[in-house]
């Protein structure tokens, strides 16, 4: 693209305005043909009914009343934004189970870049969390006391991607000696690969035990209702395009000297940050798509201009000028601020995590969820939507789309649209897009997705029993009928850049490292900025 903010009085470069006009005319003239060849159902998967979420434990998974040992207490302190903290909470429950310990309700990060003073019970339903998991892990609200005073915990930090054996070797000896352990900066501190029962426990925590509080849930559901009053179907877009994120990524979006100067100024905050070839990240698919590119991708896939779109985002670099092409492509543009009244939103405004939770609910409730990034919210929603019926979920294959975007002025709209549809096969939320066991578990909870072979049951949201009571068949390693997409699977196209990377900036942060070398390479505040 040739600039984010330069251009005429409308803030839209002339070439972009002409191209959008071309999109409108071309897509209208070839509408019938495009609909005939469209490779996907825009609002759902035809194969989704063959699969279901299955997170009940096996008969070998003993009740917590049997496994929990006395005088073993685990306290964890989460890190980052709402969704990074969510991954920490999920893994904390599993870690407590591995250690046969009682878990103290996790402490949320109140000191990070996000500056949210909320505690666990102000975001999540704490009583439901404790009661739903009672058979899996014993959970208490406050740290243990001795002589009327809280026992001082022994502070530790475990390595990234610590395996069960790692917990037993590193944490258990200290737990047996000190009895109360406090694990700090608890994010991505548990291995991606666990046995099936522990993976299913992850799913029970993430998809069933973690409920938002009533005020948050009620406003989120109100906004979904208001979107549905406007249209039968709607898209939710999680749009990450903040100045800090772009500055750190080192990506260049064609904004000329103004962009280089502005983002370069932000980069000076991190003296150790090394930026190489600014075009390389874009070529390798490591940069978020621009709002314009997201809009063009969606129109090319077949979504028409009358579709209503809900956008969950923070500060957008370039402001309204950057958003203008997306709004021209999709004029029915909504946010939580435009859908809610001032009275409804005011109680949440000072709390970034609660605001993020509202966006999470609406995105989860959408008919099609789209993301331009690979951050924690995107990953969690991708996995959640797989678990609850493979709802349409579109993640750009950025590496393959980049050369197409760069060459779009030299090809017809029909050719552009056809190539986008071909590229995006394998990135739209269909079953079996990712081989079980590959990718980040929160985005691909394969151990918790089963194929129907008869009458099946999903864990009920009001169920207190987490034992497996149905005869289910786990998804096989082979897609039904073979692959239905011609270029890359998700893992082939994006794995080198994004797998297990909560920052969404794949080449910059090695989340597989078994130590905290990350802290010496990247400022911790920066990691928090990128986390959600």
TrEMBL record:
Annotated GO MF terms: glycosyltransferase activity
A biological process term (GO) from this entry: fucose metabolic process
UniProt region (Disordered), positions on chain: 460-520
Superkingdom to which the source organism belongs: Eukaryota
Annotated Polar residues bias: 460-476
Biased composition (Acidic residues): 489-502
Keyword Iron appears in the UniProt entry: no
Pfam families in the cross-refs: O-FucT
Keywords linked to the UniProt accession: Carbohydrate metabolism, Fucose metabolism, Glycosyltransferase, Transferase
Family: Belongs to the glycosyltransferase GT106 family.
Name of the protein this chain belongs to: O-fucosyltransferase family protein
Organism annotation: Oryza sativa subsp. indica (Rice)
């Amino acid at each position: 693209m040739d600039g984010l903010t330069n251009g005429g009085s409308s803030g839209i470069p002339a070439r972009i305005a002409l191209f959008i006009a071309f999109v409108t005319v071309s897509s209208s003239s070839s509408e019938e043909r495009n609909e005939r060849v469209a490779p996907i159902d825009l609002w759902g998967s035809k194969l989704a009914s063959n699969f279901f979420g299955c997170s009940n434990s096996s008969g070998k998974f003993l009740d917590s009343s049997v496994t929990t040992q006395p005088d073993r207490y685990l306290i964890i302190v989460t890190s980052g934004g709402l969704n990074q903290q969510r991954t920490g909470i999920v893994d904390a429950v599993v870690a407590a189970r591995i250690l046969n310990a009682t878990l103290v309700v996790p402490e949320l990060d109140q000191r990070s870049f996000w500056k949210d003073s909320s505690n666990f019970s102000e975001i999540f339903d704490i009583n439901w969390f404790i009661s739903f998991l009672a058979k899996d892990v014993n959970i208490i609200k406050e740290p243990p006391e001795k002589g009327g005073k809280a026992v001082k915990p022994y502070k530790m930090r475990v390595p990234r991607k610590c395996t069960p054996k790692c917990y037993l070797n590193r944490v258990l000896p200290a737990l047996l000696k000190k009895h109360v352990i406090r694990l700090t900066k608890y994010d991505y501190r548990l291995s991606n690969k666990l046995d099936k029962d522990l993976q299913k426990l992850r799913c029970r925590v993430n998809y069933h035990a973690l409920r938002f509080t009533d005020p948050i849930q009620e406003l989120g559901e109100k906004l979904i209702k208001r979107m549905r009053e406007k249209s039968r179907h709607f898209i939710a877009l999680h749009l990450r395009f903040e100045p800090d994120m772009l500055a750190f990524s080192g990506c260049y979006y064609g904004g000329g000297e103004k962009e280089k100067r502005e983002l370069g100024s932000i980069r000076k905050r991190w003296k150790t940050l090394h930026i190489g070839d600014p075009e390389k990240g874009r070529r390798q698919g490591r940069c978020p798509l621009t709002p314009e590119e997201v809009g063009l991708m969606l129109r090319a896939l077949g979504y028409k201009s009358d579709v209503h779109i809900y956008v969950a985002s923070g500060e957008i670099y370039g402001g309204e000028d950057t958003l203008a092409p997306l709004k021209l492509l999709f004029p029915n543009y909504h946010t939580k601020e435009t859908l809610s009244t001032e009275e409804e939103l005011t109680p949440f405004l000072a709390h970034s995590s609660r605001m993020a939770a509202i966006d999470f609910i609406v995105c989860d409730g959408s008919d099609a969820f789209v993301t331009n990034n690979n951050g924690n919210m995107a990953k969690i929603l991708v996995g959640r939507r797989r678990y609850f019926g493979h709802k349409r979920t579109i993640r750009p294959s950025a590496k393959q789309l980049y050369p197409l975007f760069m060459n779009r002025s030299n090809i017809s709209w029909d050719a552009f649209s056809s190539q986008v549809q071909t590229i995006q096969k394998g990135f739209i939320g269909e079953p079996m897009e990712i081989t079980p066991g590959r990718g980040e578990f929160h985005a691909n909870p394969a151990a918790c997705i089963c194929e129907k072979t008869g009458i099946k049951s999903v864990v009920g949201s009001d169920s207190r029993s987490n034992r497996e009571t149905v005869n289910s068949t786990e998804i096989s390693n082979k897609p039904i009928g073979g692959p239905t997409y011609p270029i890359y699977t998700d893992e082939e196209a994006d794995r080198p850049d994004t797998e297990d990377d909560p920052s969404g900036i794949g080449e910059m942060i090695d989340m597989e490292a078994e130590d905290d070398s990350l802290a010496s390479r990247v400022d911790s505040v920066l990691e928090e900025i990128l986390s959600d």
